[in-house]
From TrEMBL:
Organism the protein comes from: Comamonas aquatica DA1877
Protein name, per record: Transcriptional regulator
GO cellular component: cytosol; protein-DNA complex
Chain positions with 4-aspartylphosphate modification: D57
DNA-binding region per UniProt: 134-233
Matching Pfam families: Response_reg, Trans_reg_C
């Protein structure tokens, strides 16, 4: 008989009432929670406790939460879910660009918090060290062979341009994370194209025409308004 592994979550939040609310919600799920109320303490806890994921507030008393993400990313691929009352798209983009995996605005509901954490934990189980994606990836009826650059939808071969394939491969490597416009432009085109977001829109539209059953109602190549795109790997129901 195997024992279920209990997720270990580090909560970095300076508001005691929110810390208590989140801790109780996670403990009700049977998860183990560690707490920190400052950026400095949070980084120490992240290094010493080796949690499975971090829930992070941006408005900490001793540093901006984005600085915590940047510091974490210098030595760890630990999943980070940002909780913040900052609702401006610029803040979300900046946190994601810094290396956050997801962003949840306050106020938030417990079911959504738990769902987002479960997704992050599943991704960590699939790639515990942030390693390379498997050579062959499938979603819906689409099968992508990253080694041979072959893409099939059902029994048909899908012919992608080199740019379209690099864009699809970047989304696959993101493993369901939201990738900002800036991240995708850097990865697919390079730094000299950061001021050309229309390139991304055009090629994403073309990719949807080839990959999705209905490009107007995509099931996999999802838009996060004014932020970026993500690949949804949820099984079809």
């Amino acid at each position: 008989m195997t024992t279920a592994v209990v997720p270990r979550i580090l909560l970095i939040e300076d508001d005691a009432s929110i810390r208590r609310f989140v801790r109780l919600a996670l403990e009700d799920e049977g998860w183990q929670v560690f707490e920190a109320e400052t950026a400095k303490r949070g980084l120490i806890e992240a290094a010493s406790r080796q949690p499975d994921a971090v829930v992070l507030d941006l408005g900490l008393p001793d540093a901006d939460g984005k600085q915590v993400i940047t510091e974490l990313r210098s030595w760890s691929q630990l999943p980070v879910l940002v909780l913040s009352a900052r609702e401006r798209e610029e803040e979300k983009v900046a946190a994601l660009d810094a290396g956050a995996d997801d962003y949840l605005s306050k106020p938030f509901g417990v079911p959504e918090l738990l769902a987002r954490l479960r997704v992050m934990l599943r991704r960590r189980q699939l790639s515990p060290q942030g390693g390379a994606t498997a050579s062959q990836v499938s979603f819906g009826t689409v099968v992508v062979d990253l080694a041979s650059h072959e893409v099939r939808r059902g029994d048909e071969v899908v012919h992608l341009t080199p740019i379209e394939f690099r864009l699809l491969a970047a989304l696959i490597a993101g493993q369901g994370r939201v990738l900002t416009h800036r991240q995708l432009l850097l990865q697919v085109w390079g730094p000299e194209y950061l001021d050309r977001p229309h390139y991304l829109r055009v090629h994403m539209a073309n990719l949807r025409q080839k990959i999705e059953e209905n490009a107007a109602q995509p099931q996999f190549l999802m838009t996060e308004l004014q932020v970026g795109y993500r690949l949804s790997l949820k099984p079809l129901t």
